[in-house]
Structure formats: structure tokens, C-alpha cells
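Handoff note, outgoing to incoming analyst
You'll be picking up this chain. Sequence as last confirmed:
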Amino acid sequence: MDRIDALATEPPPAMFTALLLFVHLLSIVVWVGGMAFAHFCLRPALPLLAPPERLRLMHAVLTRFLNGVLAAALMTLASGLGIMFLAARAGAAMPWSWHAMAAIGLVSLPGRMTGVILGGASPATAIEYQIAIMISSFAGTAITLAVGLWLTAKTSFTPYGVLDRTIFRSNAKA
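Most recent structure output, in case you need it:
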């Protein structure tokens, strides 16, 4: 019983945490890299084949690919939950971005892909939509961040690039 109590209070070995992070990042690279390959390399090359050959190739590739994506998605989920569990167990405050990525991973991505497939589209089309929606989500975030930084810099600095200290006063001009 002492060993079980010790496991609950001892921090995890750094190597285990590093291994979880490595598995997490590798599975995401496989997942996203596979989608990029299917969209940017495989799809443009398909018109070179006759339709019956094209169908056989897509079936063979997507069968293997979607099995790999399923494995990568499950590894991403398991390793991400493991990392969050270890951080919570160590008493560390998890950044909001971890929670945002967990929400996207658990709800958004599988929901989009499943919805497109249930709507009658092929898995390849679902993957294309998934890539397009994620790119637009990240682009929207990047544009919002850039505009926010630009507006903040415009109102918070003097024309000489020095921080305007009046922004910290309660009676500062709007």
C-alpha cells in the first residue's frame, strides 16, 4: 500500500512526461501531414489515372490512411489527456490554450468529419473540409491577433515608440 500512496504523491519521471509529449506531437504530425499529403499530393495526381484505376488507388490509400488517422487521433487524445493529468497532479495551472485544444480535439474535428461523411460525402471530401475549416480558424485567429496588436500598439505608444504611461492611469484619455 505504501507504493501506491507514493505514486500518488511523487512527481512523474521527466522521461515519461517527455515521452508523452513526443507521442502527442508525433501523432499530430502524422495526422496533419497525412491530410496534407492526401490533399496536395495524391489528389492532384489522380487525373493521370483512368477512372477505374483511380477508384482502386483511392480505396487502397484511404483505407490505410483512415486507419492510420484513427490510430493517430486516439494516440493524440490519450497522450494529451495524460499530459493534462500529469500537469493537474503536479498542481500546475494549465494554460487556457490547452483547454481550447482539448475542446477542438474532442468536439470540433470528429464532429465536422463525421457530419460530412454522414451527409453522404466521401471521406476524402470530409478531410478536405476539415483542412479548410482548420486553416480558416487559424487564419481568423491570426488576423484577430494582428489587428489587436496593431490597435494596442497604436494607442499605447507615443510617436517615438515609447510606452505611453498614461494608459495605466484611471483618468487616462480614451
